[in-house]
Amino acid sequence: MILTKFVKIKCHPKNIRHFKNLGYNTEYGKYIIVMVKHLTKGCHVIIEVKCDVCGMEKELEYCDYFNSITKYNFYACCEKCSAIKVKKSKENNPIQSLKKEILIDLYIEKKMTSQEVADYLNISKSKVYCNLKKYGLNRTSSDARKIWFKKYIDKNKINLEPFKDKIIDLYENQNISSNVICKEYNCSSETIVRRLKSWGIKIDQLKFRTLDTNDDKIIELYKNGLSARKISRELGYSSNTVLNRLKRNGIRVEIINPPFGCEKYNVNGIRCVGTYEKKYIENLFNNGGKLPINAERVKTIFGIYHPDFEFPDKYIEIKSTYTYDSCIGKSIGISGKLSDKQYRKIKWTGKNIKPVEIRILDKNGNLIKMELCN
Known about the structure:
Layout (H helix, E strand, L loop, with lengths): L5 E5 L5 H6 L9 E5 L10 E5 L6 E5 H8 L9 H14 L7 H10 L4 H8 L3 H11 L5 H15 L8 H9 L5 H7 L4 H10 L16 H9 L4 H8 L3 H10 L15 E4 L2 E4 L1 H12 L6 E2 L3 E3 L2 E3 L3 E3 L2 E6 L1 H7 L13 H12 L3 E6 L5 E7 L1
Parallel strand pairs: 11-12
Antiparallel strand pairs: 1-2, 3-4, 5-6, 7-10, 8-9, 10-11, 12-13
């Protein structure tokens, strides 16, 4: 209990606005008389207080008194009185007398979360959790996720009952897929499928999978250098559909991971990775030379080797002066290390499979140097 009614306070930047809002006549550096109940919780002014347990009177800073009474709303002056305070608090605190039946009703039967139980009883979540653990009522994380998901679904559930007959007619009679129906009702296709199942409609997974795909168009686009993903976007199919149609028609699908900074090109149906490779094919084409084909990968003892091009009697490897130096380990390559691993792959291929012709070109595609590995 506070015995002091009024105190003398000096106005300073931290409290002047507080007291001014309460109607006091404030001015920087001057002292004013204020009521104790108007003090800020961090105020260090000395006040007289009385112990709520033993009745002893003493002087104390207001901030210490405020911190002492915050939790249970009464003040204890010493350790002995504090022990009595704690005991009384436990007896009067509804948190400690939380019955198992209440938790079973809220947490188990009504499927409330621990936070919802805490809000309902106006107590902390940690106290709810301690009581649940004490009575052995804890849920597993899996059960908790299921309950949360159900509440989330119920909260965000779209009411499609008024459109039941129309949706069934679109799916059953007009043969419109759930992917199209969902756009009309601003929901997901999974939502449409779930509702159809709940209305007793049999879902045919293969009903809308028969696509009138134009295989010739897919092959033409692929030979023109478009990837399966770009073809799928242009024609409105999935990437897997495009890949399956290419494989069904005997087209070998190559997955090329070009070095950093290299561009992909297509010159007269030949795929090129890099500008120097592109220049090489363009020069052959413009000069009426025999064109190579895209080479298949070669498995060597040093790893997989990817030649640039292939003729019946040899492989072609196109290099600039920089990439040749990094290939033979003379300069640092894109990996940031000195390595001649690719050169060893080329040498092994030339010796064991068929010759590899390394052509070092300038920016215009003109031959600077040629090396034959066999």
